[in-house]
Amino acid sequence: MVLTQITLQLISADSDAADLDRYTRRLRDELRELDVESVDLVQGNTAPAGTKSGAEFMLGELAIKMLADQLPKLLPVVAERALSHFNGKVKLKVQKDDRVVEIECGKNDLEKVRKAALSLIDKM
Questions:
Q1: Over the stretch 52-74, which tens digit does the pLDDT of each residue have?
Q2: CA-CA distance, 9 to 82, in Å (whole number)?
Q3: What is the tens place of the pLDDT at every residue in 18-43?
Q4: Which residue has the higher pLDDT, 115 or 62?
Q5: Packing angle of the helix pair 17-31, 71-84 (nearest 10 deg)
Q6: Lower CB density within 10 Å: C or N end of the chain?
Q7: SS3 for 26-37, per residue?
Q8: Under a CB-based contact definition with an 8 Å cutoff, are residues 97 and 3 in contact?
Q9: Overall domain count for the chain
Q10: 107 by DSSP, 3-state: which?
């Protein structure tokens, strides 16, 4: 069982921090319904000493783990779900072992993600 790590980043100049956080959390819950190993908020730096909050999270970023052979099927679905209610772009960083492939797309670029997902298996 070979797992692939995907970092999904939502990019928008129109959304404020609260909207981006709310959408990221809703997307995380939607993606957990797919056949993926895990979907989590990307943890950033820990909160400064003396503050009440625990770990801080990177705004608009999710870490997704899935089986490598599921990439062609699930990567386009992940991008489509991310863009379905979001006015912006999605950056997908796919990492397996020491190899990394990055794809940035908007709503009109989903075919690009489908083609890239099919070719990723060959590259990885």
A1: 454 566 889 999 999 988 888 88
A2: 9
A3: 889 999 999 999 999 999 999 999 98
A4: 62
A5: 140
A6: N
A7: HHHHHHCCCCCC
A8: no
A9: 1
A10: helix
Does the model's pTM come out above 0.90?
no
Residue located via tokens 């990723």: 120
Q: Is 59 exposed, middle or buried (0-12, 13-18, 19+ CB in 10 A)?
A: middle
Q: Is 62 exposed, middle or buried (0-12, 13-18, 19+ CB in 10 A)?
A: buried
The set of residues, in sequence order, having a beta carbon less than 8 Å from that of 15 and lying 6+ positions away, is 23, 86, 87, 88
CATH of the domain at 99: 3.30.70
Q: Which domain holds residue 105?
A: 3-123
Query: Cβ(89)–Cβ(119) under 8 Å?
Result: no
Distances (CA, A) of 81 to 74, 92, 100: 10, 13, 22
Give the pair of three-digit tokens for residue 39: 């979907």
Report the DSSP beta bridge partners of residue 41.
Answer: 62
Tokens of 46: 């820990």
Is the per-residue pLDDT at 51 higher than 60?
Answer: no
